[in-house]
C-alpha cells in the first residue's frame, strides 16, 4: 500500500544533492522516474546511480523557468509514460550577500527558479493529474521560509527566504485548489543538508560553528534524511495530509 512502485514520478533539480538522491531512491523502489535539471547529467553518473533499477529514468535537461521548457518536459513524460502520479519540485538556487548588495537581476533569478517555475510546473502537471483524480505533489521549501538567518552577521537571505516562504504559501493554495481532485500538496522544509548548495557555508568555520550551535542535533542532515519524509508525503501513507509544511531541521526551530 505505501509504495511508489510503478508510479510515475517527476523530480526537478534531479542533478543536485537532494534531487539526485530522491531520483535514485525512487528508482530503486521501482518508480518510473523523470529526472529533470537545467544541468546536463553525465551519462556515466546516470548509469552508476540507476544501475539495477526496475525502470531506467527518463533524463531531461531543461530550464524550468521557461514555460515552453515546462511544456516540453510534460510532453516527453507523457510520450514515454502517459501520466504523472507524483511531482517533486526540488529545484532551487540561493545567493548570500548583504541586503543592500542584491541586484534586481539576482532577485528575479531566485524568485523565477524557486517560485515561478514551481507555480507553472505544478499548474501544468496538476491539469493532467486531475484527469486521473489522484496525485501527490511535494515542494522542497526550506526552514528559511519560516525563519531566516543572517549568517553570523555576514549576509542576508532575503530573496531566498521570501521565495521559500512564498513556496509554503503556494503549497497551501494548490492544496486547496486540488483537494477536490484527490491530489495532495505538501512542503518539506529542510534545515542545513550536506549538498553543494551549502558547501561554502559548511567550509566557513564561523558559519559552520553558528549553524551547529543553533541545531540541537549538532550536525547537517544527510540527503537521505530529506528523502525519507518526501517519500512519506509521496505515498498513500500520507493520504489525509495536505497543505502541510513539514520542518526537517534537526530541531533548529525549537529554540
Ligand atoms: N542543501 C540545503 O541545506 C537545503 C536546505 C533547505 C532547502 N534546500 C532546498 O532543497 C532543494 C535542493 O537543494 P540542493 O541542496 O540539492 O541544491 P543543489 O544546488 O545541489 O541542487 C539544486 C538543483 O536545481 C537545479 N536548477 C537550478 N535552476 C534550475 C532551473 N531553472 N531549471 C531546472 N533545474 C534547475 C540545479 O541545476 C541543481 O542541480 C532546493 O530547492 C533548496 O533550496 C536545500
Number of helices: 8
CATH architecture label name: 3-Layer(aba) Sandwich
| Total E-strand runs | 7
- Order of strands in the sheet with the most strands? 3-2-1-4-5-6-7
State the major sheet.
Answer: 7 strands, parallel
Spans of 5+ residues with little confidence (pLDDT < 50)?
none
- Distance N terminus to C terminus? 37 Å
| H/E element sequence | EHEHEHEHEHEHHHE
CATH class: Alpha Beta
Q: Total domains, how many? A: 1
Structural class, from helix and strand content?
A: alpha/beta
User: What is the CATH third-level topology name?
Assistant: Rossmann fold
Name the CATH superfamily classification.
NAD(P)-binding Rossmann-like Domain
Ligands: nicotinamide-adenine-dinucleotide
User: What amount of the residues lies in strands?
Assistant: 5-15%
Helix content: 40-55%
Shape call: globular
- C-alpha Rg, in Å? 18 Å
How would you sum up this structure in a few lines?
With 255 residues, this protein is of the alpha/beta class.
Would you write up a description of this structure?
The model has no long low-confidence stretch (mean pLDDT 97). This protein has eight helices and seven strands, in the order E-H-E-H-E-H-E-H-E-H-E-H-H-H-E. The relative contact order is 0.15. With 255 residues, it is α/β, with parallel strands linked by helices. The radius of gyration is 18 Å and the shape is globular. Helix 1 links the parallel strand 1 (8-12) and strand 2 (32-37). The chain has one domain: NAD(P)-binding Rossmann-like Domain (Rossmann fold, 3-Layer(aba) Sandwich), CATH 3.40.50.720. Strands 3-2-1-4-5-6-7 form a seven-stranded parallel β-sheet, sandwiched between helices. It has helices at residues 17-28, 43-49, 67-81, 104-132, 158-178, 199-202, 205-214, 224-233, and strands spanning 8-12, 32-37, 58-61, 86-89, 135-140, 183-190, 245-248. Nicotinamide-adenine-dinucleotide binds at residues 12-13, 15-19, 37-39, 63-65, 90-93, 113, 117, 140, 142, 190, 192-193, 195-198.
